[in-house]
Design goal:
Blueprint lengths: L2 E4 L2 E4 L6 E2 L5 E2 L2 H6 L7 H17 L4 E4 L9 H10 L4 E4 L11 H4 L5 H5 L6 H13 L15 E2 L17 H12 L4 H19 L1
Parallel strand pairs: 3-5, 4-7, 5-6
Antiparallel strand pairs: 1-2
Helix pairs in contact: 2-3
C-alpha cells in the first residue's frame, strides 16, 4: 500500500480522503518578521487561530491538505507540527523546495499603491472562476483536476486591513460557495468526489 509523508508521520494514500492540494497555514517574509514582529504578535495566539480555522475545515469533511510553503515563504516545520498535533484528524502534507521571484518581496507587493492591482478589476469574479470549473467538468476534464483555494491562516503578503475586502479567500470557500454553485450548474457528485478524493490519491500513488 502506498504511503505519503505527512507532518505527524506517514499515512496511507488510500486513506487521504477529500484533499485540498494547495493550502498554506502560515506564509511569512521571515527577515521582515524578525525585524518587525508586531504584526505577527503572539506565537501562541497564531497557533490557536490556525487550529481553530483548520478544525472548521475538517468539520466540512476535508481530511488532507497539501501545504506548499517552501523555503522562501517562511517554512517552519516545528511551528506546523504544533498545529498538526492539535488537529490530528487532518493530514498535513508539506512540500520541499525553494520559492523564487524576480520582483520586490511579497510583503511589499500588496501594500500602498500596489493595492490597485490587488483590488482592481483585473483579480476574476467568483462566477467567472466557478464557471470555468463547471465548463471544464462539462468537457470531461474532472479526472484531471484537483480543487483548492490557496488560503492561509496568516499571510504577511497582504496588509491585514485589506483582508476584509477579500471575503472569499478562506478555507471554507470551496465547500460553502464553490461546490453548491457547481452542483446547481450541473457538476455531479461523482465529479466532485473525483476532484477532491480520487485525483489526489492517484497523484500520491504515482509519486509514491
Amino acid at each position: 500500500m502506498s504511503q505519503v509523508a505527512a507532518v505527524r508521520g506517514p499515512v496511507e494514500v488510500a486513506g487521504l480522503g477529500p484533499t485540498y492540494m494547495h493550502e498554506h497555514i502560515f506564509v511569512l517574509t521571515t527577515d521582515v518578521q524578525q525585524n518587525y514582529p508586531g504584526e505577527w504578535g503572539s506565537e501562541d495566539a497564531r497557533i490557536t487561530d490556525a487550529v481553530t480555522r483548520l478544525r472548521a475545515l475538517t468539520a466540512q469533511g476535508v481530511r488532507t491538505i497539501v501545504d506548499p510553503t517552501v523555503v522562501g515563504l517562511g517554512r517552519n516545520l516545528p511551528r506546523i507540527q504544533r498545529v498538526a498535533e492539535q488537529v490530528p484528524e487532518l493530514n498535513i502534507i508539506v512540500a520541499t523546495g525553494v520559492y523564487t521571484y524576480d520582483s520586490v518581496p511579497w510583503f511589499f507587493r500588496h501594500r500602498g499603491p500596489a493595492l490597485n492591482e490587488t483590488l482592481g478589476t483585473e483579480v476574476p469574479t467568483f462566477e467567472a472562476r466557478a464557471d470555468t470549473l463547471i465548463e471544464m467538468c462539462r468537457r470531461g476534464y474532472a479526472e484531471r483536476m484537483v480543487l483548492s483555494q490557496d488560503a492561509a491562516c496568516y499571510i504577511d503578503w497582504i496588509d491585514p486591513n485589506v483582508v476584509p475586502f477579500l471575503p472569499q479567500w478562506h478555507y471554507l470557500h470551496i465547500h460553502d460557495e464553490v461546490l453548491p454553485y457547481a452542483r446547481e450548474h450541473g457538476v455531479t457528485e461523482e465529479q466532485i468526489a473525483t476532484m477532491l478524493t480520487a485525483n489526489p490519491r492517484r497523484f500520491f500513488e504515482h509519486t509514491g
